[in-house]
Amino acid sequence: MKYLDEFRNPDLAQTILSRIRSLTTRPWVIMEICGGQTHSIIRNGIDQILPEEIELVHGPGCPVCVTPLETIDKAIAIAGRPDVIFTSFGDMLRVPGSHKDLLMVKSEGGDVRTVYSPLEALQIARENPHKEVVFFAVGFETTAPGNAMAIHRAQQEGLTNFSELVSHVLVPPAMEALLSSPHNRVQAYLAAGHVCTIMGWEEYEPIARKYQVPIIPTGFEPVDILEGIYLAVRQLETGRHEVENQYARSVRREGNRPAQELVARVYEIAPRKWRGIGEIPASGLRIRDAYAAFDAEKKFFVDDIQVQEPETCISGVILQGLKKPPQCPAFGKECTPQTPLGATMVSSEGACAAYYRYQRLAPETV
Amino acid sequence: MCLAIPGRVVKIFSEGGLRMGHIDYSGTISKACLEYVPDIREGQYTLVHAGFALTILDEEEARKSLETWEEMGEVIQMDEPQDSLRDSARS
Amino acid sequence: MTDFPETLSCPVPILDHDTVQLAHGAGGRLSAQLIEKLFLPRFGNDTLNRLEDQATLTLPSGRVSFSTDTYVVDPIFFPGGNIGELAVNGTVNDIAMNGATPLFLSVGFVLEEGLPLETLHRILVSMEAAAKRAGVQIVTGDTKVVNKGTCDQLYINTSGIGVVPEGVHLSAARCEPGDQVLLSGTIADHGMAVLTSRKGLSFQSRVHSDTAALNHLVEALLEVCPRIHALRDPTRGGVATTLNELAAASRVGIQLRGDSIPVKPDVRGACEILGIDPLYVANEGKLVAVVPGSEAEAVLTAMRSRPEAREAQIIGEVVSDHPGTVTMTTGLGGRRIVDMPIGEQLPRIC
Q1: Would you call B73 an interface residue with chain C, using a CB distance cutoff of 8 Å?
Q2: Statement to judge: residues C187 and C160 lie in one domain
Q3: How many structural domains compose chain C?
Q4: CA nearest neighbour of A139 among A167, A171, A174
């Protein structure tokens, strides 16, 4: 596939790797923000071939992982109603709430449907005027424009049976929260290439300056990730800390303006809880009052559901890069992808799940 | 997070009040909303996430970044015998 | 692997009703009409035509292989096939995977009240064709009708009997270090054909199912190499699941070469869009063969000389390391685990 295969070319990857090796003189800790990057790193074994000075820490960039327990419980409460068709990306169906997941709601008779796009949820609402159609609007900045468009169209068409349960999160506030933690170890970021495709990179410049960290908007294929690491190491070794765009074929400085505008019209910035981390100010999106009719939390009176996260799991520490998944006593024992205790084991892109799936051979290979 | 896949716009049309396109992903064709890429033309490549086109992929930029490394690869090969990946893999 | 042109040459017989009635399953006049007008013209043979409660069969000598499977698929017609063709090929393949020659099938239908008889007829026509291609006879059957809304159009069960030739001993537990792992062609065709033709997912062009009977291929392979250790058809759960089952049953490791597993470009495109790993997607016309290393090339050549396995590849080898685990070397020189899937593959955005 064009734009994928060239960036999976092992020869180019080797070339970049040898440049990284000749550049690196000291240990560096680099965090890849995005779960998609984590996935690609583990799947391609990139962490196994890097010079040992370079430590990759897997960031919180997986909306499935960071969606708080209470939002899952709200989704389950709504999806169980007989008048509701509950629509969701496939990712969220297996995420455990306090007592069950959405697939279990479905098996109990709830009408829970997987959609690939929020526009499909909208179409289901058009075709089922006597049902309430709720879309589980999760995701980062990348997904927000599509979810905003669904609400915008519903309003234009006067569709009163469509609403969204919104749990949108924003990346830069989380990056800042990690950097300002007294335990921070991260010295450079690979920023999430598709988030930056929408948002551009202007908002990263003050973060790079204030915390003196290189921030590299980076793609998802092996050549992209290795080039991102190369650019980060080059800055670290020469004492620079700038935003430097690796993913130039997709990311422009200003991002995608039409997308940003519609997101800002439909949603507003709000504090949001991150599973495993806690509440981060101004790190989420919620539906503006002008679109309150499309807010499922208000429509179904679930905004008072509140849940405490269980204490047993160290996913917060993992998400901050302070520990690696195999260092958790529950990893691979009580906690597996079949029986996840916490956020990072839930999603296939969560750091724990990625380790579990691809790296249980570690004692032999590492 | 944010799986977005490159595909080529093969047809642009209007549907349900939205600018839509058929996107070709090496033979499989699927629909995507083009509202956020108003300047895109048939034949251009985009990245699609959850049914929405996010950007117009810049062929020139892609070519440049690949060429840089291809040239560097040739230089490295001339300078030194390429060391095997496994040599310096963590042992 | 046909797109139902048979219907053109087989007009739907004239019946009292256009759709399935509860009475079609009640054993009375309508049941008899269904059997005489729809089923017998398609499947008729000396054994079935007797319309006894059972088929009485004479089998060639040898060990008997017996298998059953129930088919539920949404949608019932998909690019490259339909539920009926799948029900014949699937059971034929299950029997063939221990080297047996499939001979006879039974067919049980659960029909939803209101199903158009024309739809049922189309399915029977393609089952007839599939049975003919595989060289098996449908010798006994049953039909039940359930109230509208209590099943999704129709479900089919097929069971089958075959006889294992002398000297053939295939088993998932016989893989040995040094064996090579062969795959008969591209993966994920069937699963992605079904997934992309489901309502909702807005796909315009679709990939085609690979549904096919594999018994003739198996015969050809056993002729070249009677010492094949194991054969499996990687259906639900895909190649990854099958290899994990083989590794577990034989207490060996399996090491795959990451770049050796063939996927058609359009199938790969569909997998990329939905975030689905083709290794975990169902196939209905492919097999995995584990053969002694010294005979791998001969078996590969035999595979490639047949139309249903032209794109066959050697995809990996059996090792004594990490017993029970399947690993894959990556293009960059790393290694990863290819695990069992947790559940059904769901389209994802992240």
Answers
A1: no
A2: no
A3: 2
A4: A167
Same domain, C134 and C241: no
Task: Report CB contact under 8 Å: B89, C333.
Answer: yes
Is C139 within a domain? Answer: yes
Q: Which of residues 318-347 of C touch A (CB under 8 A)?
A: 321-322, 325, 327, 330-337, 339, 342-343, 346-347
Q: pTM for this structure?
A: 0.90
Tell me the β-bridge partners of C110: C144, C155
Q: Which residue of B has its CA nearest to A171?
A: B1
Provide the strand spans (E) within chain A: 28-34, 54-61, 84-88, 111-114, 132-139, 162-169, 188-192, 215-218, 267-274, 278-287
CATH architecture of A1-356: 3-Layer(aba) Sandwich (3.40)
- The number of C-beta contacts closer than 8 angstroms across B and C is 61
Which of the listed residues C109, C138, C164 is the one where a domain comes to its end? Answer: C164
- HSE, CB side, 13 Å, CA atoms: give it for residue A47: 25
Domain count, chain B: 1
Bridge-based pairing of strands A111-114 and A132-139 is unpaired
Answer yes or no: do C210 and C93 share one domain: no
Asked if B5 reaches chain C (Cβ–Cβ under 8 Å), the answer is yes
d(CA C246, CA C315): 14
Query: CA-to-CA distance for A275 and A315, rounded, in angstroms?
Result: 8
Query: For residue C347, which amino acid is it?
Result: P
Which sequence spans correspond to the domains of chain A? 1-356
pLDDT for B78 equals 64
Token pair, residue C125, equals: 């026509």
Q: What CATH number does the domain containing C301 carry?
A: 3.90.650.10
Q: Does A6 touch chain B (CB under 8 A)?
A: yes
Range of the domain at C267: 172-337
Q: Do C348 and A91 touch (CB under 8 A)?
A: yes
DSSP letters along A219-230, please? Answer: -SSHHHHHHHHH
**Tokens linked to C181:** 């792992």
Q: What is the pLDDT of residue C10?
A: 66
In a domain, B44, yes or no: yes
**Residue C3: predicted pLDDT:** 45
Instruction: Say how far apart CA C158 and CA C108 lie, in whole Å.
Output: 6
Q: Would residue C69 count as lying in a domain?
A: yes
State how far the Cα of C170 lies from the Cα of C179, in Å rounded to an integer.
Answer: 14
Q: What is the CA radius of gyration of chain C?
A: 21
Asked if C87 and C104 sit in the same domain, the reply is yes
d(CA A38, CA A33): 8
Q: What is the pLDDT of residues A288-341, one digit of tens each?
A: 999 999 999 999 998 778 887 766 788 878 877 788 888 898 898 888 887 787
Strands (E), C147-292: 154-164, 180-183, 230-232, 253-257, 288-291
Examine the domain organization and report whether C153 and C251 are in the same domain: no
Measured in angstroms, the CA of B23 and the nearest CA of chain A are apart by 13
DSSP 3-state assignment of C14?
coil
What pLDDT, in 10s, does the model give residues A28-58?
999 999 988 988 898 888 988 999 999 998 8
CA distance A239 to A241: 7
Q: Which residues pair with B14 in a beta bridge?
A: B19
CATH code of C34's domain: 3.30.1330.10
Provide φ and ψ at B71, rounded to 5°. -65, -45
Closest CA to A90 of A71, A113, A118: A113
Contacts of A3 in chain C (CB under 8 A): none
Residue B39's domain comprises 5-80
- Find the angle CA(B58)-CA(B61)-CA(B65) to the nearest 5 degrees: 145
